[in-house]
Structure formats: C-alpha cells, structure tokens
Amino acid sequence: MLITSPITLAKTGLLPGRVYEAASTGVYADKYAETCLRVELGLADSGNTWGPLFYSETREPVFWARNIWLSPFLLEFDSIGSVATALRGIQRNWHPTLFTHWRRAALIQSRLPPMSLKPRPFPWLLPDASVGAWTLLDEHTLLASANCSSPFPGGVIQFEEDKNGPPSRAYLKLWEALVRCRVWPHTGDRCLDAGASPGGWTWTLARLKANVIAVDRAPLAEQVARMPGVSFTRHDAFSLQPEDIGPIDWLFCDVICYPDRLYEWIEKWLAADLCQNFVCTIKTQGANTRRNLSDTLRRFTTLGGQVIHLYHNKHELTWLKVSRRPDE
C-alpha cells in the first residue's frame, strides 16, 4: 500500500533527493535499524515514505540504509513493454523492491534481463556491473535509480553457508564485507583478529591461509585454535598497543564495546601507520541515544573508508577502510 508520497512534482523526471531502503528487512529484521534511519533523516513516524523506501534531500552521511538509491527518477508509462524497454535502454541489471502492484511488477521484471540471486561461494569476486533498483508507486508510475550504494541486488547477498566448520554465524558478515571490498587477505598475510572468540572470523582468515593473531579474553573454539597459521592470545585487545603487535596487513575487530572506545583504538593504529586494511564492527545497541550515536558514526567517516550497514549486520554497522587493490 502506498503510504505517503514524499514529494509533489511532475510524474517524470529526476528527483532532487535520494531514496533510502530500510535495513530492517534484512536477515535480522526488526525495527531498530528503521528507527535509526528515521532519526538520521529527520523523519517522523509517517510521511516521506513509499513502503520500505524513505525519501530525503539530506546530504548528510546516512548509515542505517540497506541500499541507497543515489540518482532516483520517476517515470510515467503506459504499458509494461514500454517501461521495460526504458529500463533496458539505461543498463542491463535491475532489481525490484516492491510494496504494491506485485503482479504488474512481476510482468515488468520478466521482460528485463535475468539476474542470478543464487547463494554465492566465498571467496567470490563481485562483478563490476552496477545493479539498479526500481519499484512501482502506482499502476503507471515507476520510481527507479540506475546508481545505488550497494553492489548487491536490493542490498542483499546470500552465501553458500558452511554449517560444520565455523563456531558461529559471524563469519557471514566478514564474508560480505570482504566481497564488498573486492579483496581479502592473501596466503601469508599477517592479520589481527580482535575480539576473536569463539572464532568465526579467525576461521575465515585461516581458511584463506593467512597468519592470524587472535586476541580475546575468552578462548577460541578448539577446532579453530588448531587451524594452521592461528596463534591465540588471551588478552583485552584494546589494552594492546599497535607497537605490541607490530606491522600487520589487516586489522579485523568484532569486539563488543562502545563505539567511542573502538574509535580511539583505531586512531592509535592509524597514527602508528602499522596497518592499511581495516574491517571493524561498530556495536550500537544501547551505546547512546540514537541522535548522539549519529554524531559518533560521523567521526568514523573522518578516518577514511566508509561506514555501512551490511545485510548480515544486526544492531551494528561496519567500518571498512581498504587500500589494497583486488589485483595486488
């Protein structure tokens, strides 16, 4: 059902703002991320909304969206064939986010080139081709954007899960982060895994044949601790100084802590210039009021890289800063 049209303008043309797809429809669906997104956009409980899509003209950083439609436009059309032809004329890949007129939308999608949505193996090199997003506002009005923030259709990526090796499902968000970066550790790379227990991320890195320094106050699962290239230190990772570890190729952090504490620790690593590639989870639930949390998250953007909500994140975000190119 169409909730509230956020703008009043001609039914064909480029919109001045952006469309934000709520992350609350992801793998850990609840209203936490949607509420955070509303706060970021300064939206009330209703209005400026098309189903799961939020419209805003803000240019402030927005973190709690599963996908951002960066160049949205409206297109009024007469027939299914004409709108499908128009989309194909822009680019090949399109994926719908629907909340109304599902049957009509299915007919439109059937006339667009097919896209594979099958679960992916890891590692998997993400193709360079962009994926556009579209929806129907009514029977004859399309909302779409060829340029989106997520490289995945609708911001969603599924993997061929390993239900036997890893001790937790946390490895899925690391897989997603590395696929999104289009690069991952190579054989022999020296990696720090802070907050490693029970070992889902360490398991992933060891499978890539990296040398992993796993640090946590709790132990690793036995099968992970025995993997080649894994060394474990029982310690509070944040009390270790960069000089205590030395040069590393990658820093991974999934520590449960307040965002400010993570920020201060990362600042030390950047100042020491002992690592160039970072994948860090920013735990947020209960950290602060949501408005103050947005201020803290903006501080992370000053460090370089990007803060995003992965499909496999829950009440958390991920900070990515990677300097290595895929061919290195």
Structure description:
- The protein is of the alpha/beta class.
- It has nine helices and 16 strands.
- The protein has helices at residues 32-41, 80-90, 102-110, 171-181, 200-207, 222-225, 242-245, 259-272, 290-301, and strands at residues 13-14, 18-22, 49-50, 53-56, 65-69, 73-76, 94-96, 132-138, 141-145, 190-194, 211-216, 230-234, 250-253, 278-283, 306-308, 316-321.
- A seven-stranded mixed sheet has the order 12-11-10-13-14-16-15, with helices on both faces. A five-stranded mixed sheet has the order 1-6-9-8-7, with no helix packed on it.
- The protein is elongated, with a radius of gyration of 21 Å.
- Mean pLDDT is 90; it is low at 1-10.
Features:
328 residues; Rossmann fold; 2 domains; 7-stranded mixed sheet; 5-stranded mixed sheet; 9 helices; 16 strands; elongated; disordered N terminus
